[in-house]
């Protein structure tokens, strides 16, 4: 749970099998000699594995793995006994301490614990390497424009070990292979993969037809075989020729998948994930069925003896994260890639051609050593190349860019770098993550933030890469509209401006911006302005500060050093506008650039202002008096208050006007109307202690904060009207315009641009209504 | 994962074997009809099976290489978890016996609590089958149409002569023994059918009354009570208790402060770890782990592990060291204080503190005076004082209760406005002075830890930055020991120190004694007396050592809390040392 924010693909290898009338066949696997890790889960830092894992199941796992099993045990026993175990015995950790000696010397115990610590650190550092690698790549790409990011080949070059330990150069892989694995791997073919006979393995991952064309998941201990087996249909077609479904509008599908991805990424609810997945099985395929299945397809299919193919991803996710990791892998990579392959198979028998090519190559190259052979195959077969590249990129949490049958395709497991709320300090996140509660691209709570859906147009983009690099990577024409759009992207200009300047339609610009963010090319922020207030983000990656200092210096040699700059921003009596830090007008652009760099690297975040309307006791009393005069008091109290959306607490105090008390009492008995309008409940009775010597009274509740002024009750509307009574007309007009935003969910900086309100007017309003408006500042 | 430990209910359970003539088949299932269509349908059985058993056969009873592992697989919207076993023995028809107890769960559920148990159960039955043929004999006993064939096959096969004629190379003595046992077994089973209590004929032979009722009971007990204890015989039973699998606790720092969330004292028993017992009294929401270890005279790493265990079981939560020099600011979650109906009232109950000196006669006379003129009380009292027991009380209440002490609870709006008034650049001390009038009867430490634990405010950490160190790092002159930036000659520690230009922290001096206590963590690091006793040289040496220690920490970009805890010094002392290193500033993050 703690590390769900970090990418952890846990990918051990990819298998590719086909089924013909002769049986099942493992055509290709990558890496050639994967390690099965004793079918155990990836050790997390302090991984808690299966409670009963360590019984007598011994496999070929390395010693490191065994040890990890041991210290897991210490965390998993129950409270009393586990601490006992720590102090009482060393049996689980080391044979040296066993026997009847239950009382270890402090020294030995300490050593033991240190040992554990070291082991854990080692594991952590592995993970960290992975992260660092991701980060490095981003930085490299930024620092050096010529670096081509996310080229699949880079992955292998730059990568350090990932947790599967199989990455890197191929010979390395071999040496890592567990020793019970084939000794004959040097010559000829491999006979075992993941500790299973190849024949057996290919049979296991070739399910009967009943399990095909849907998610396939088989777990052996903690090792998961995940795939989407594609079986030919009875009519000889590979894809469901449901013509009636074909005319799903594309946009609809798109919208859906976007929603899906959000749900996957941010809702930890497994239920929702699984549901989405089942839906997704049919999603992309519809998207692609655009009537290309001509009659020639059928002819091709006839000379294909293959009736099923299956791309199996083998993973060993940590036990705690099993569902999450397999779901994201399936949703983002396995299903998408498999469906693309099915499409190509249907179109021109691509899979069968490639499969037979690989099989022939394997035969003709049988004299070579396995690694040479694999290199040859990857060179010559595009499908093998796809598999190898996918493995390399995914196991490094990178974006896969592969050419499948002549078309570029990209896949990725999205990384979480945007947070709506601050995660716990102990929760590791990717360095460079940003905080923003209003970001339209972050983890949107679909139910409550529907209003942010269209708000992306008010945001600007920060490119994470050099513009020209991105243009090249996405394969855009040098002088196309898209390319000029990318070149124009500036953190100070929102999408509306950008689209008008670049000539791209706004909706297109929005789609494209979303695309850039999704593919880790950009971040969406509110346009950078000198008037904005920035704070040093509580998630700032201080552990990297001294390293980033150099990068910062290269970029901005004339500015103070990074730490001094941050200090400049953060140490004042109140968070202040950027303009107060900028020494002169000439420096403005430079400072803004620096700030955008810092936002991009996660050091700074924008402090937004949120408003609420507060009804003071005075207002209430005045309204109350008015109502009494009007003789309408009764009506208001009996009817309207029940549905009121006020924030109020009852008071056990008797000093208030009787009318007011009535209101609050009613409120406290109310059932919640809806989650946001729910008034706060408290029981006044419990406040009075049974200790007769003391009388506890609650402070008189004088003020009420309206949670949702837009749907105010009649009485509340009277209060609101009272607040602006006597204000100049322009102020009260503006007040009613922005009233709907005073629910603590809309950032002032945002609706100002949205509703085109000038800063002066707003300031005037805030000053004149100071006593009625509550402001809260956060990100 | 949520806080409530609910276990996914088991949808169905079935027991499958590899039948010598019929292949893989389901012998028993609960509920009836859930896996295969049963012989005789009754009203309670499923109309149609949940899934097509034929397509998963090969995973229910897989080839031997997949046996004795926990195998789970998906079919339709179900996940099936089993521990297939395969036992080689010449006594069996086809020389092997394969079985599997499978559990069916909804696919998207979290089955981890079950997995270990299923594995354990599978292993136990494997052992029982190996020793006593408890399962295979039972297939005989259940002598319905399906199993007649198998029982016969068994018998013929286990005939020693036949086995030998089949040419199977086995130790004949072993075979003999096995067949003997098997024969007994058959008798035993027959008796079992006649409902003679197990053990009468063969005292040491475990007897299973019925696999069907066994899985029925496992199914029902686990779903209803999350545990089961089903005796098989005197020595063996199916004991399962489900435990939630909680993620491992995060790594914690020495400067973190644990706050108990349950009444730990009431949980203590004799089996508790001695270190745990030692440190318990010091977990008070004020002491950092480092300090707890010190006070309890326990080893730091052991103490830390204890805290991590408590954290794992959610008995403690972690906050930061509370000091009046800390800074806090609202997070985006602050809206929950208004929308979450419970939070505000919980906060009210938690932060409320009775005036410390309420019972002293000192304040008695004031009471009567106060009720007459409450306005003056509010404005007159309060500056920096905790104890203002008096607030306006209606005459009615006054008369109904005989001269009670009146203690005012803060209202929810007050609490909200207090939380929102925190911001990134104000220390608690400054904030306190600003809001002292409304902070009567509020325990500030609790106010802060409530906010932090609920995530509505966050601690703004300050990281000291030594300008000199930066410059030296920048110029590439990176001496690892940091000597380069250490001044050659420094003034002795002087009582007055010059603050860094940007530094505007107030000192704690002149603040109440209560706070001082909370402020200083690891105060006991350096004993002033001993320092004075040492010679000047020694002093200088210590100071050097401290300075280079500090430089090391600065290079790791640690915040003040971490530096103070690690060096065992108060913040003032550290600031003092920093001054010795030249100008410095802070980053508030």
Give a quick rundown of the structure.
The complex is a heterodimer of chains A (779) and B (589). Chain A is of the alpha+beta class and 779 residues long. Helix content of chain A is 43%, strand content 13%.
Give an overview of the whole structure.
The complex is a heterodimer of chains A (779) and B (589). Chain A is an alpha+beta fold. Chain A has 4 domains: 11-38 and 162-411, no CATH class; 42-97 and 104-146, no CATH class; 434-607, no CATH class; 612-778, no CATH class. Chain A has 29 helices and 21 strands. In chain A, α16 runs antiparallel to α17 (481-488). Chain A is elongated and about 95 Å long. Chain B is an alpha+beta fold and 589 residues long. Chain B folds into 4 domains: 12-241, no CATH class; 260-318; 336-460, no CATH class; 462-588, no CATH class. Chain B has 24 helices and 15 strands. In chain B, strands 1, 2, 3, 4, 5 and 6 form a 6-stranded antiparallel beta sheet that branches. Chain B has a two-stranded antiparallel ribbon with strand order 7-8. A two-stranded antiparallel sheet of chain B has the order 9-10. In chain B, α22 (536-555) packs across α24. The interface between A and B is large, with 131 and 124 residues.
Mean residue pLDDT of chain B: 72
Alpha-carbon Rg of chain A, integer: 31 Å
Low-confidence stretches of chain B: 140-203, 362-401, 477-527
Total discrete domains of chain A: 4
Instruction: Specify the number of helices of chain B.
Output: 24
Largest sheet of chain A: 6 strands, antiparallel
Estimated radius of gyration of chain B: 36 Å
Which structural class do you get from the secondary structure elements of chain A?
A: alpha+beta
Helix content of chain A: 40-55%
Strand content of chain B: 5-15%
Instruction: Give the termini separation of chain B.
Output: 29 Å
Q: What is the strand tally of chain A?
A: 21
Strand content of chain A: 5-15%
Count the helices of chain A. How many?
29
